[in-house]
Amino acid sequence: MRPILLGLAAATLAGHAAAQGRARIGPTVSSIVLQDNSGANHTYYSVGGTFAFLAGDDGEIGLTVARYKDLSSDACTRALTFYSVDSYYYPVGPKGIAPFAVTELGLARVTESSPPYACGVLATTATTTEIGLGYGLGVRINAGHAVSALVEGRFFQVPNSQIQALEGRANVSLAFGKARQSQLLNGTVGPAVGLLFPLSGPMEGRGPALGVRFRRDTKKGGTVSLQVDYAPLRVPADCPTACEPNAILFAPGYEASLHLGWGRVYGELGPLLVGFPSQTVDRGVAQGAQGGLGADILSGRSLMWNVNGRVLWFQRNGGGNVFLLQVGVSLSPRLVAAAEGH
User: Fold this and answer.
1) Residues 80 and 219 in one domain
2) Is 5 helix (H, G, I), strand (E, B) or coil?
3) For the purposes of burial, counting CB atoms within 10 Å of the CB of 321, is it exposed (0-12), middle (13-18) or buried (19 or more)?
4) pLDDT tens digits for 236-274?
5) Domain count, the chain
6) What pLDDT was estimated at residue 15?
7) CA 19 to each of CA 94, 148, 331: distance values in angstroms, whole numbers, following the listed order
8) ω into residue 198 within 30 of 0, thus cis?
9) Domain that holds residue 247
């Protein structure tokens, strides 16, 4: 039954690809780092394949199948097969050297020893199906018209398992079909740095947050944005062990803008995902929301500075709410048409 379902899914995607234009297909490999209960890191690998097509507005939709044959650091059995639907967002288009953000949602078939404390004594295993989630950043490099290579880093989680980790992936694809014109206006991307200050709850920043900010204008006058940060945090009170977790912040948003001669000011609102890959009480993905104010300041003919302040809220996996104030700055290529066309 599973090969039939995968065949139908591939046929459906292929049909859409023929209608939409540019598509690609090729093998995907990854290296994933998992922490055990003692906090030690272990590296594993996966192999699989990806089929994706440009669904419009310089975004891709794809299907990836990945097989993690061995994810165990002891005598236990732990293996994973992941079937995911992928969404790639290219703020400056998919041509040339193109940065992107990617999110994945799919079915994870996890095979583990049962019971887990009797590994090597009882040889039984159990297979369960869970919902898996991944998100991260990458860059696409196009070699001519027929070949493209993608490299990305992401946070990956399978709930109700020990798989909450950072992962690096690489894909080489054969590309085919006609290029598609985007219906969005100009997009830009650039590095970002910020500081996190506690407002409420048992967490605070312990260093600068480093990340990437994406931005793209729409024909309706608003702006879609995405910022992904690597944030070092601290639990300052009532924390016996693992009190300094690192987090991956994934913050998409919509910006309502007012354009001026020197740039623009905006208000932003959107959801928030916070991934904790380390072995702590917060390990996994916490959900919340984010919103605030910012300004883009034009600098010369080619650059644009961004300054912003926003409130982050998320609910800890271990219980309790966290409110943080993030104040940041970023630099990116200037959106000439969007800034001067209003």
Assistant:
1) no
2) helix
3) middle
4) 776 766 688 899 999 999 999 888 889 999 999 999 999
5) 2
6) 40
7) 18, 21, 37
8) no
9) 187-340
Q: pTM of the full predicted structure?
A: 0.77
Do 211 and 108 belong to one domain? no
Residue that is last in its domain, among 154, 176, 198: 176
Instruction: Give the end of a domain, one of 118, 146, 176.
Output: 176
pLDDT (0 to 100) of residue 167: 93
Question: Could you count the other beta carbons within 10 Å of the beta carbon of residue 82?
Answer: 24
Phi-psi region of 166 (alpha: psi -120 to 50; beta: other; left: phi over 0): beta
Please check whether residue 324 is in contact with residue 311, taking contact to mean a CB–CB distance below 8 angstroms.
yes
Q: Tell me the pLDDT band of 317, cut-offs 50, 70 and 90.
A: confident
| DSSP assignment letter at 238 | S
Q: What tokens appear for 177 in the block?
A: 């079909």
DSSP string covering 161-208, please?
TTEEEEEEEEEEEEEES-----SS--EEEEEEEEEEEEEESS-EESS-
In our burial notation (b when 16+ CB lie closer than 10 A, e otherwise), range 283-301 reads: bbbbebebbbebbbebeee
In this structure, the answer to whether residues 287 and 228 fall within a common structural domain is: yes
Give the CATH number for residue 202.
2.40.160.20
Return the H-helix or E-strand segment holding 339. Answer: helix 336-340
